[in-house]
Specification:
alpha/beta; eight-stranded mixed β-sheet; 10 helices; 23% strand
Length: 340
């Protein structure tokens, strides 16, 4: 049972602004799979297929879907940690796809990522202070006593005492390690964060602490955030708006309270039916999807969800459904949406 299902929906914190902080249009990412004669790829894997999205300052956008749906690849393409194959990414009016080399490295302080395991690829022999201070050194933001003071300030921002600066990764609990990862991400003073499954490896009580920390950071620093998770209950706790991803495509987008009350796409309905409800005085009929997630190397024709959809018709095999308006700021890519 999930600890977040009895929590109220996240209250919208989107300020009254006109321009998005992040704007992604028709983003695509393909990978070559295997090599055949003369080194030619045997197949093309379509990890992200024409995704468009916006994130506003101070807004947390949840991105949900099954494992293999392309969520993590999308998040890393947005930051250009993975190079997109096509599409545009604009951040605060800057075309990120036009940045190269030194320009891109300098720009990274504005956009950072929080990993599921922040210490997965770091040097365990470095102290916490050295790890948090790396970004300050790389971007030449502080040195000497000013750097030490900033490291302590960052640790305190994430709920860790100053003495943690002299400790080493192996002495920390999972929740403490994630707090250090968040401090590292905040070191450059970013305006935007990608949080990639940041609580999935933590115990439930610790998950709640980290989620509340992220909400506090959003409120204090007005950062925009793309929060990636497979857990709809976690996303319900933290997100202002939710995007549902299936086989490389966004199939539904809506404000969180709208999505959880009246999901339009059959895939979203199936995901919600599997999430437990606590304290709401009602239950859902479980919608069980048939089969497995199709291969992104050979996705279905028409609607990518049709091979598992209980409502699919012959038209769904022939027509790729566009994103259509279901209501205010509510869109779904379905020929027969529930709320139409």
């Amino acid at each position: 049972m999930n600890a977040f299902t009895n929590q109220p929906l996240a209250a919208s914190a989107i300020p009254a602004v006109t321009n998005p902080l992040l704007e992604v249009a028709d983003l695509r990412k393909t990978f070559s799979v295997g090599r055949g004669l003369f080194g030619r790829p045997r197949a093309i894997l379509k990890a992200v297929s024409g995704v468009s999205l916006k994130v506003y300052p101070g807004e947390i956008v949840g991105l949900v879907g099954e494992s293999g749906s392309g969520k993590t690849t999308l998040g890393r393409c947005v930051l250009r940690l993975v190079e997109p194959s096509a599409g545009t990414v604009r951040f605060d009016g800057v075309d990120l796809m036009a940045l190269t080399g030194h320009q891109l490295r300098a720009f990274r302080k504005h956009m950072q990522i929080i990993f599921q395991d922040p210490f997965d690829s770091i040097n365990e022999r470095m102290s916490i202070g050295e790890l948090v201070g790396e970004a300050l050194a790389i971007h030449r933001l502080a040195k000497g006593k000013a750097r030490r003071d900033r490291i302590v300030e960052l640790l305190e921002q994430v709920g860790l005492r100053a003495e943690f600066a002299d400790r080493y990764p192996h002495t920390l609990s999972g929740g403490q390690r994630q707090r250090v990862g968040i401090a590292r991400a905040l070191a450059g003073g970013p305006q935007f964060l990608v949080a990639d499954e940041p609580v999935s490896a933590l115990d439930l009580s610790v998950q709640a602490q980290i989620l509340n920390l992220l909400l506090d950071i959003r409120d204090r620093l007005n950062v925009g955030m793309l929060f990636i998770s497979h857990d709809l209950s976690v996303v319900r706790f933290i997100a202002d708006r939710v995007l549902v991803m299936y086989l490389g495509k966004i199939v539904e987008s809506a404000p969180a309270e709208v999505l959880y009350r009246s999901a339009a796409h059959p895939y979203t309905q199936a995901l919600l039916s599997a999430a437990p409800i606590v304290g709401e005085g009602r239950s859902r009929e479980r919608i069980r999807l048939q089969g497995e997630l199709p291969s992104p190397v050979d996705p279905p024709s028409g609607c990518v969800f049709r091979t598992r959809c209980p409502k699919a018709t012959s038209e769904c095999a022939a027509v790729e459904p566009p994103m259509r308006a279901i209501g205010p700021d509510h869109h779904a890519a379905c020929l027969y949406p529930a709320s139409a």
